[in-house]
Amino acid sequence: MDALPTEQDANTGTGPTVLERIIGWFGVPGILAVIILMLHTVLNALMRKTPAGSLHGTLEYGGYWYMTMICMLGLVWAQQKGEHIDARLVFDRVPRPVQREFELFSHAVTFALCAAFAVFGWFEALDKMEIGATAGVSGVIIWPAVFFVPFGFALIAIQIVLNFLRLLRTRSGANAAADRSEEGLVHDVLS
C-alpha cells in the first residue's frame, strides 16, 4: 500500500518522497485498530451472556488505546492524503498571489501548533511513563498509549514542513517561468 500522491503532487508533477511514503504506512495500524476495537467490543458483548462474564478493561482499552491510535494515526493519514476539510470562505475571494501568502502563513501556524502539541505531549507522555499511569481502578496500563499523541503531532508537523517546502518550490518555479515568459516577450518585441 503505497502513499498516493497528494493534490499538490499532481500539480507539481512530482510523486511522494520516501518520507511521505513511510508516513503513508502509519495509516495501516490505525485501520487495524478500528478492526480490533470492533472485534473486542463485539466479543465483550457476547461474553456478557456467558458464565465467564465480560472481558476485563474493554472500556479502558477502547478509550485509551484503540481510540487514541485511531484518532492520531487517522489525522496523520488524512493530512497526508489532503482529506481535511477546507473552509475557503475568504481564501477564494482574494487575488491569486495573496492566496499563496495565505497558504504559506497557514502552513507556518499549523506547524507551530502541531510542534507545540508534540512537545507538550512528549513531556506529558514521559510524566505518565514515570508514574506508570493506569486507567483508574481497572489497572489497565495506559501510559504507552499516551505516546501516540506526540508521535502523531510530530508526523503531522513533518508533513506540514514538506508541504510548505513543496509550496515554496512550486511558487518559485512558477515565478521563474513567468519571468522567462516575460523576458521572451520583451526579446521578441525588441527583435
Give a description of the structure:
- The protein is mostly helical and 191 residues long.
- It has one domain (16-84, 94-173).
- It has six helices and no strands.
- It has helices at 7-12, 18-24, 27-47, 58-81, 96-131, 148-190.
- The protein is elongated, with a radius of gyration of 23 Å.
- Residues 1-12 and 182-191 have low confidence and may be disordered.
User: Total number of helical segments?
Assistant: 6
How would you state the average pLDDT, rounded?
82
Question: What summary fits the major beta sheet?
Answer: none
Low-confidence stretches: 1-12, 182-191
Structural class: mainly alpha
Strand content: under 5%
Number of strands: 0
How much helix, percentage-wise, in residues?
over 70%
Radius of gyration, in Å, reads 23 Å
Number of domains: 1
N- and C-termini, Cα separation? 55 Å
Shape: elongated
The topology string of helices and strands comes to: HHHHHH
Which characteristics define this entry?
single chain; mainly alpha; 72% helix; 0% strand; elongated; disordered N terminus; disordered C terminus; cell membrane; transmembrane helix; cell inner membrane
List the helices and strands and how they pair.
Elements: H1 7-12, H2 18-24, H3 27-47, H4 58-81, H5 96-131, H6 148-190
Keywords: Cell inner membrane, Cell membrane, Membrane, Transmembrane, Transmembrane helix, Transport
Pfam families: DctQ
Subcellular location: Cell inner membrane
Summarize, please.
With 191 residues, the protein is mainly alpha-helical. The protein has six helices and no strands.
